[in-house]
Amino acid sequence: MQTWERFNVFQKGIRSRFSLFAKINLLIIILFIPILIMYTYSNNVTYDVVSKELQVSNTKQLTFLSSQIDSRINQMMDFSLILSRDPNVRAFNGLNLWQDKYDQMQTRYIIQEKMTLQTGVTDLWPTRYAVYSQQNKEVIANYTRDTGYDEAYLKKNMSGQWTYGDHSTDSKDAMQSFYWFYTDSLAQPGMLTGSNLVIEASFSHENIQNMLDTYKAGGQGDPFFYHKGNTPILNRTADKQLSGDLIRYLDTHSLEDTTQDVVELGGKNYLVSTVKSTYLDWHLVDVVPLYQILEPISLSQNLFYVCMILLLVVGISASILLYRNVQYPIQKLIKGLRRVQQGDYSVRLHSNNQNEFSFLFHRFNDMSHQIQDLIENVFQEKIRAREATLKQLQAQINPHFLYNCLGYIINMAQMKDEQAVVSMAHNLSAYYRYTTRMERETSSLQEEIKLLVNYLDIQKLRNGRIEYHIDIPEHMLAQSVPRLMLQPMVENSVIHGVGKSYTSGEIRITGESVNGFGKIYIDDDGPGLTPEQYEALNQEMLEPLQEEVGCGLWNTYQRMIHTFGNHSYLLFGPSPLGGFRTEIVWEIPSEEADKEPGNDSGG
């Protein structure tokens, strides 16, 4: 039998190997799937991280550029305030009653020199200043003016805010300058009293272009200065087409102080960032081509996918080659194994190649030559061993019961109780008629119950205190159980339960079937055992037979294991009657369980 099992294992291994080669291409594809998923996830994470870092960096750079512009504007405003308080400027706006012409010219020269010095601080941000004396109707500027003092011009531009253009032209398409007018008037802002000093500070749109050009030289964007309704100020190398598309997009959207969006223009993605200027109410706008910056990541991703496809093609090609070289000999081996399984042990396999399969074929031929005799011998040996074990266990129980019965007969004969002797002899005859039928190791539960009735009637003749009750469901009486499975348990209750007490005498035998298991409970009202003794007795059932353990209990347990399997057991514990309980549990075979009514519910 062991050789046959090895043969089955060998056959299953070959089939498993064949199945592995038949599905190797699918396995390669399955192995590639998690790699692709993990790489795609990792690439997406990298893409997102780079995009976010690019957005943060672009916002910081644009904010820094806006702060530079605001800083230079703030310097112009501070200078205008300082200039308005200069003594020479105050003198220029005075009545000039005590100054001669030379002093007046000297004052004008000093004022122009200070404005010129302030203008020449940096070439990147040239500025223009003009000082208006409303009292003297004169103007001094550090740049060439087309007109002189103009009262209407001043009143029109006294808004207190930076404006784009001096409102002297109606064209919004022309590139203009930014202007700011400051007066030292204590009256309502923007109102001239007739003797005010007005400082005009202005700078050209080229200043903004200079800043934009410097910013663009250090980055990858294409910045410009934007205000809805005015001509935007572009850097000098701006992409006019891209800027025009973006301006049309901005005209339809409201801008916050700081805005950042990914905009699709011309089928390509651009990162658009805007920062609002504090003084000018214009927005610095920078557009960065995301598709160019993230192109190396996309290129790396595409290269990885190409490599994965090449590896997949190579793997499938190798699997096909391996399959062709291994498939045929494995198929021959499987056909030979199937013929052996069907009983044809004359099959022989041959191989022209000297490889692992030739050795495997040779061993297969040797196995098929010997396997038939080994299978028959192993089967017969196992059957004989099982029969011998069952008969030996049953033979150990029969003498035990015979000795007790003969003892009862002797006692009754000595007491001249002929009726008890006749009853004992009758029951003993029925018992041996039952036990000597060795052609079957099992009997029905109904026959076992009849044997218990005979036995308990005999015990009742010996001891008038004994009362017994048997309650077994009718659907259980037809079940097959080992012979003499119940009698040793009842005998144990009679001898060790009722026999050791002068007041007890009740024995109760009940049964039920629960969830595919048969259960019989044998209870008495004897003295019982302590919890430690119950635990020790249950443990002894699982160990080899010992002298202090009754052979009837142990043998019954062993026969139940042989008949019903390891799910069957004996369990000893306290009885509801106050004495000793024996619980016999066995697994009902499926063919018998299907015949029982309500076999899917508890008793």
From TrEMBL:
Query: Where exactly are the transmembrane stretches of this chain?
Result: 20-41, 303-323
Keywords carried by this UniProt record: Cell membrane, Kinase, Membrane, Phosphoprotein, Transferase, Transmembrane, Transmembrane helix
Is Ligase one of the keywords UniProt gives this record?
no
- Pfam family of this protein, just one? His_kinase
Topology term for the membrane: Multi-pass membrane protein
Where found in the cell?
Answer: Cell membrane
Q: Which cellular component terms (GO) are annotated to the entry?
A: plasma membrane
Question: What molecular functions are annotated in GO for this chain?
Answer: phosphorelay sensor kinase activity
Would you tell me the protein name for this molecule? Two-component system, sensor histidine kinase YesM
Coiled-coil positions are none
Which SUPFAM superfamilies has this protein been placed in?
ATPase domain of HSP90 chaperone/DNA topoisomerase II/histidine kinase, HAMP domain-like
* Highest taxon above the source species: Bacteria
Does the entry feature the keyword Nuclease, yes or no?
Answer: no
